[in-house]
Give the backbone structure.
Amino acid sequence: MPSVATMSPAEAREMIRNNEWMKPTAGVANGYTQANLVVLPKELAFEFLLFCQRNPKPCPVLDVTEPGSWVPTLVAPEADLRVDLPKYRIYRNGELTEERTDILDLWNERMVGFLLGCSFTFEYALINNGIPVRHIEENRNVPMYKTNIPCVKAGRFEGPMVVSMRPIPEKDVVRAVQVTSRFPSVHGAPIHIGNPDRIGIKDIHKPDFGDPVTIREGEIPVFWACGVTPQAVAMLVKPEIMITHAPGHMFITDLRDEQFGVL
């Protein structure tokens, strides 16, 4: 059995499908693109697609399923979105009602699945450039925060942008911007560097999603747009049902990171 870092996407998904991995997926199948999941009834699908088109930093679309289909044919044609994520969140009328390891009984002919780019994709590139990724070092989920940055409204969908944070040594900040800007399809360059209060984050040690991580002397908090944004939007829009990944528990595609990078 290979280590989780060197597994193929198919091996990683099989392990997840069998409930042998129910943790965040940072560091799993390194070099392969990971994705956020949003599942909505088809009656809301166009409005949500428009929301993503108007907000490409937090919601870069990688694939959209046909109504009723759980197969993401563009990014992983052998996969099953009902069982291939470690943990799902179920929102009903804007309220988070449960977390579970599969959504087999919830998927019906009305459901449309959206896969959105995830910043875990560029972490492998950061590490290859000698830039530390603290939540991987500390075996934690990446810290994520609601901000005061409004998304562009589309139909019924509106709400605040969510960001993920990585503490970067001051000497490496410019390089981190250069590296991540090569991946515009998976959030790209940071949206904010430095003072968290400027974007509405009152306590950087108390993330809204994920886990706090150590920020060392000489490090600067750097913030990237985050695909958890639809979960913050769901709390405002209150659709009858909306299914998402649990923060940090991503879908692993068959695509290499380089396919989404500008090299």
In short: The two ends are 32 Å apart (CA to CA). The mean pLDDT is 93. Helices lie at 9-17, 42-54, 120-128, 134-137, 173-181, 229-237.
